[in-house]
Amino acid sequence: MNEQRPGLTISSVALLVVLFLQIPVIVVMLASFSETSYLTIPPQGWTLKWFEAVLTDRTYIDAIKNSLILAVGSTTISLVLGVAASYAIFRKLVPGSEALTSLLMAPLIIPSVVIGVALLQYFTLVGMRGSFWVLLIAHVVITVPYIVRSALASLSGIDLAVEEAARVLGANGFTTFRLVTLPLIKPGLVAGALFSFVTSMENVPVTIFLAGPRDTTLPILIFTSVEMGVNPSVAAVSTLLIIATAIVLLAAERWTGFHRFV
Amino acid sequence: MSNVSLRHLAKRYGKVAVVKDVSLEIAEGEFVSLLGPSGCGKTTILRMVAGLIEPSDGAITVGGRDITRLPPNKRNVGLVFQSYALFPHMTVFENVAFGLRRKGESGAALDERVREALALVRLEGYGDRYPRQLSGGQQQRVAMARAIAPRPSVLLFDEPLSNLDAKLRDEMQIELKRLQRDLNITTLFVTHDQAEALSLSDRVCVMNDGVIQQFDTPEEIYHRPATAFVASFIGKPNRLAGTVKDGAVDLGDGLVLQSSGAASLDDGTPVDVFIRQEAVTLSASPDGKGTGLPGTIVLRSFSGAQVQYVVRLGNRFEVVVEVASSGEGANLEQGREVFLTIRPQDTIILRSGTGA
């Protein structure tokens, strides 16, 4: 078959689909510049005052800080635990690897609300309710599947003989993992870590059950703000979030070419 | 540089024995091939020596040191993989330096050792490339440089040439042999290619079904195979079954084959006679002494330097005969009656039932 550029029809349909998917994003971004004190499209006048309002509001700053700490913390812990678990599963170092994989991936399938309620009951029972650590543990539970999935996929893509070569050349098990296995699965792990980060960053259904009054995260704050009456500062903080996410994704793609692993 | 000895080595997976009681003594600096069909256990033996598979039984010593239970990183062996197994995220330099760094080598001494190893495989100046930027033959040479750089006491090769095309394989064979002789490293080489094994090795160990069939020089293996398996595996000869009668072999249908080994066997002993395709002479008329076996040409095929015939002997046998296309008996047509002459010393005679 000769290589053809896609026809006009297909291109237009594809463009329309992309536009349709992006409409909410565009709407939110436009609304954040409106001078009115309610959300409106198209924006009435242009102003940056809502951005100023967000960036000078302690409530928002604290929520952003909480969210970032949670996302970075839970992704780091998930990376360590997820990679270790995936390696053990992949290498059949533990029995029941199929069952273990399903167990680790379960939070992807179980509805978030159910996980939230279940964790709330559990932490109430053990008397840890309301602590920041509870939130961190919960976020590890919901982010670890993304790490496990990308780690297992990356591991199955490397030649086993490469690890054996390192062993024969004098590297012990840990050195082999550090110098050979880990660098080879890194692009996949970056992709997994990004998913994990974003998942933690945007999570409402689990967090809302567990967050104490001082641990409000950004999505929870947005959620409650919207309930209490919307002004464009919600749109402004959303716009900031969208831009930050886009920058991180572009940078990661540039560094690692991770799109192959998504 | 050390001698290697395998004593009563065995490997079982559940009830399946892959390697059964293999004992082998390899002298210092010797080049030994493990030759056999796939599944004969040769790669398993190699991997046990490297420490990648734990033996079920037996012991492995290198230079008198028992390494049977040592992890691979404590064995000081060099291994060249069939897939090369280069580190794809490291440059050629770092690949070769990997083993040296694990031994604590660094700085100028490391640079020097890496340069030396790359020079040995004629890849000077390739240090900055990545494996994916190299051809198959070059990757193969990097794999060799990486294996020899830390000066291992034993070099192990796992079918290293099987992924190369025929021409490159011949070149690499010569290079490999030269390298091994120059470095004088004890070498264990696994292959299923008999020509490769015969031309490279000081001694060849032919294996089948987890058992050593014969361990000897290439000449002995070729000319004096110890078992029917070795006789039929090396050189793809014709195999004729018969019984000993008056110092010759009776093949039935009135066919009697003179064989120099038959004299020492009792009359009536069932035997297998192996005759190589190139050891037979064809002629259109009897040789006058009455020793030629009469047959009929069933098929003739011309392949350049050689002509191959399939000749029917009596009712039971078809024999493949290969003659030089420029020599005598190269132009006999299909269906023709011919006479086969085989010198008695060119026959290999074995009692029936010795090996496969």
Automatic annotation (TrEMBL), chain A:
Report how it sits in the membrane.
Multi-pass membrane protein
Q: Mind telling me which SUPFAM superfamilies this protein's record contains?
A: MetI-like
PROSITE patterns reported in the protein's UniProt record: ABC_TM1
All copies of domain ABC transmembrane type-1, residue ranges: 64-252
The protein's matches in Gene3D superfamilies, at most eight in alphabetical order, are given as: MetI-like
Q: Which residues cross the membrane?
A: 12-33, 68-90, 102-124, 130-148, 188-212, 232-252
**Pfam families, alphabetized:** BPD_transp_1
Report keywords, A-Z.
Answer: Cell inner membrane, Cell membrane, Membrane, Transmembrane, Transmembrane helix, Transport
Q: What is its main location?
A: membrane
Question: Does the record's keyword annotation contain tRNA processing?
Answer: no
**Compartments where located:** Cell inner membrane; Cell membrane
- Keyword Protein biosynthesis carried by entry: no
Q: CDD domains from the xrefs? A: TM_PBP2
Could you tell me which InterPro entries the record lists for this protein? Answer: MetI-like (IPR000515), MetI-like_sf (IPR035906)
What family classification does the UniProt entry report for this protein?
Answer: Belongs to the binding-protein-dependent transport system permease family.
Q: What is this protein called?
A: ABC transporter permease
Automatic annotation (TrEMBL), chain B:
Q: Which Gene3D superfamilies match?
A: 2.40.50.100, P-loop containing nucleotide triphosphate hydrolases (3.40.50.300)
Q: Which residues cross the membrane?
A: none
Which UniProt key words apply to this protein? ATP-binding, Nucleotide-binding, Transport
Any one Pfam family match given in the protein's UniProt record, by short name: TOBE_2
- Specify the ABC transporter domain's residue ranges: 4-234
- Tell me a Gene Ontology molecular-function term this record carries: ATP binding
Which InterPro entries is this protein grouped with? AAA+_ATPase, ABC_SmlMolc_Importer, ABC_transporter-like_ATP-bd, ABC_transporter-like_CS, Mo/tungstate-bd_C_term_dom, P-loop_NTPase, Transp-assoc_OB_typ2
Q: Which family does it belong to?
A: Belongs to the ABC transporter superfamily.
**Protein name (database record):** ABC transporter ATP-binding protein
Taxonomy, top ranks, is: Bacteria, Pseudomonadati, Pseudomonadota, Alphaproteobacteria, Hyphomicrobiales
